[in-house]
Amino acid sequence: KQHQKKLIYFENRDLVLTDWIIAPSGYEAYYCSGECNFPLNAHMNATNHAIVQTLVHLMNPSQVPKPCCAPTKLTYLSVLYSLDDSNVILKKYKNMVVKSCGCH
Fold first, then answer.
1. Cβ contacts of residue 57 below 8 Å, gap of 6+?
2. 65-77 pLDDT, tens per residue?
3. Helix, strand, or coil (residue 56)
4. For residue 47, is pLDDT > 70?
5. Is the CB of residue 63 less than 8 Å from the CB of residue 99?
6. Among 19, 36, 52, 82, which is disulfide-ready with 67 (CB 3.0 to 4.6 Å)?
7. For 76-89, how does the pLDDT look when each residue is reduced to its tens digit (9 = 90+)?
8. What are the structural domains of the chain?
9. Which helix (H) or strand (E) holds 52?
10. Which positions ≥6 away from 11 have C-beta within 8 Å?
11. Under a CB-based contact definition with an 8 Å cutoff, are residues 68 and 49 in contact?
């Protein structure tokens, strides 16, 4: 199946983060899934390395794997959390949400 971005939702209570995170209560992180098969099209956001790896895989599949579907662009997540009883902090955590995927 072709590579694509898929939804995964994390809830703070499931991650045992409810004691200090005020907001958000969870977030849509997304993940990349699927195969990067020959031929790699422009919409697959393939690197030049992935294109070469695909060609080598076709010639010798037992020694060289197919390229992997991986994030090509990530963005931040704003988190409001309690530092202690009297301090609340708003912080942007980098690379928390997958925006796009590609073959690498």
1. 38, 64, 65, 66, 67
2. 999 999 999 999 9
3. helix
4. yes
5. no
6. 36
7. 999 999 888 889 99
8. 4-103 (2.10.90.10)
9. helix 48-59
10. 25, 26
11. no
